[in-house]
Amino acid sequence: MNELVGTGVALVSPFTADLQLDIESLRSLVRHCYKGGVDYLVILGTTGESVTLNKDEKKVVIQTVIQENNGLLPLVIGIGGNSTTAVVEELEHTDLSPFAAVLSVSPYYNKPSQEGIYQHYKAIAAASSKPVILYNVPGRTGSNVLPETVIRLARDCKNIVGVKEASGELAQIQEVISGRPDGFLVISGDDATAKDTVKMGGQGVISVLGQALPDMFSRMIREAAGPNTEQADALHRELEAAMELIFEEGNPSGIKAMLQVLGICDAFVRLPLTEATGDLKSRIATYMKTMSGINA
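The chain above was modelled as a monomer; its predicted structure follows.
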């Protein structure tokens, strides 16, 4: 899965003032990302507010991204949930042919045991016609996919090719990296840990910030994978304030505010999320003005 090494970005779903999908802004965002040098695009994830999109809207997002991308970058689709049967049915009824892989979040709210998580993903792997990437994000799901479970799935299910690791715990990430089978991808799910994950031997990131600042973020990841990582450290320091700003009032409220500064899309989000406050928008705009080469 070398096509999913480097910087992936979890695309937002832009909305108009009446909270309808903003198709032209989504097209602009896709162009901004591939011109900025990212390696692949992820759609219909948490950052894309997928839980507030209906089936028809999801189809529109898929069609729009496929058309605008025009085969330039690999695509990953988010299909997950806390009902194994429902996820399997969605996989069976979704045309996965345009996608390189499926990103599937660990079951949330019902807090399954490690064995339950294992059986959930084993069923998903059997149902998916495309490779599956596990998504561990304990801060959202209420449960942690432990390294032994990740490694067990990697060894038992050939269709499970990687994990998006968003525990934020570098020791846990290192444990997965050390114990994984050859070729298994360890992908940072946190912008803040992306550089260190790659330096430890991970394969990259699925980033939120990277869609606003694709050139800088992609350069940071490339430098972190190289023999001399000082430049990656320097870029991380320059981007650190942005990482903090965009998550201060929740995701994707912050990143949409940053994309609004760039003129790519508006900052509207759907309830239960709320738009970034005027204070945060002002501080994001101030930050962007300090960035070399950024027109804000």
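The mean pLDDT is 96.
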